[in-house]
Amino acid sequence: MNKFLHSKYKSLTPYDTSEEIESLTDYIRLNTNESPYPPSPKAIEYAHEASRSMNYYSDPECRELAARLSLLMKIKPSQIVFGNGSDEILNFIFMAFCENGAAFPDITYSFYKVLAELHGVNYVTVPLRDFRIYPEDYTHMNHRTLFITNPNAPTGIALSLNELERIINLNPNSLIVIDEAYVDFGAESAVKSINEYSNVIVVRTFSKSRSLAGGRLGWCMTNESLAQDIRNVKNSIAPYNINAMTQAAGIGTLEDEEYMQKNIAEICRERERTRNALCEIGFDVLDSKTNFLFARHKKIPGIKIFEALKERHIMIRHFTNPKINDWNRITIGTHEQMQAMLNSLKDSQIIKEEK
Fold first, then answer.
1. Model confidence over 208-261: pLDDT tens digits?
2. Phi and psi for 227 in degrees, rounded to 5?
3. By C-alpha distance, which of 148, 99, 143 is closest to 125?
4. Quick one: pLDDT at residue 335?
């Protein structure tokens, strides 16, 4: 650690991307919740055309993209703010709205904790019960900003819209941030709540269902007042945060909804097939409304499952948190990729030893 580093950053534990980098080549990547399918052909075509104008700055307001997305979401363009991935949106929210602290489940997207510590935000975590979020556990937040990932990660379990609205109603003096990174895979969106409540922000991404993880495009939807606050923070840090090619790719994606829905349907079918197959060989698997499964073997430690697959160049996500270290998160890939994983599990020595 260099002597010039600001003292407030010396204890930071950054978000861990080491496994993601390691798996870039000659591995089946079932560890990063990416789509196994390429972007829409329209997205690729539009991005290529936009590359011809890279000598100019991109539109800082993403006006054409916002206009297209607002039609799909049935809201005003002024209610949308775009980020360089949804992580940047979350960063803006932590900067803008967490003066009174933050709260989130103890087992959820780990980036919340990273951002809280980065910005010196006092935070509390609320324990899951049976891997589920219960609205009644989220009371008396004392004006803290509350972050709820729905469906939750890494568990994959979704709350209903009624349950989300109960959390909102229990916390009228707190800002409620609903992170819907995986909502397209079977959960209910809370987007309608942004016009019904004054304290709700819904965060979404193009990374998962829309196959643009490498394009880095996320957005949030909220009332116009909160949106302008977020926009002011954005424009104070990175006014041109969405490059022209990514904006164009986003437009192309929105114009090809049929392509996205086809991929989602295939991922959901493969998710259920894989879930059933894992249960047949001794796994417990939580009910998922995402593009991944959260699974543990009844007898074999999670780290052994992880290592056995890694030896066969198949990457899944293992967690060191003692509460979930027997569980692994498995991204849903193509049928061929999932079958390769299942075959490797069945053929691995550790599974055979338990039979």
1. 999 999 999 999 999 999 999 999 999 999 999 999 999 999 999 999 999 999
2. -60, -40
3. 148
4. 98
Q: What is the mean pLDDT of residues 106-119?
A: 96
Tokens 């066969």 locate to 312
CA pair distance 110, 97, nearest whole angstrom: 19
Domains with residue ranges and CATH for the chain: 11-37+258-354 (3.90.1150.10), 41-255 (3.40.640.10)
Per-residue confidence (pLDDT) for residue 354, from 0 to 100:
57
Pair 209, 260: CB distance under 8 Å? yes
User: Comparing 121 with 5, which gets the higher pLDDT?
Assistant: 121
Looking at residue 26, what is its pLDDT?
83
Collapse the DSSP code of 189 into the 3-class scheme (helix H, G, I; strand E, B; otherwise coil) and give the result.
coil
Exposure string for 176-195, b = 16+ CB within 10 A, e = fewer: bbbbbbbbbbbbbbbbbbbe
Strand partners, 192: none
| Strands in the chain per DSSP E | 28-29, 80-83, 102-105, 123-126, 145-149, 176-179, 200-205, 218-221, 283-285, 292-297, 314-315, 317-318, 328-331
Q: Compute the average pLDDT of residues 325-352.
A: 90
- Give the up-direction half-sphere exposure of residue 7: CA atoms within 13 A in the CB hemisphere: 0
Q: CA-based Rg of the chain, rounded to a whole angstrom? A: 21
Cβ-Cβ contacts under 8 Å for 285 (sequence gap 6 or more): 275, 278, 279, 293, 294, 295
Sequential DSSP letters for 76-119: -GGGEEEESSHHHHHHHHHHHH-TT-EEEESSS-THHHHHHHHT
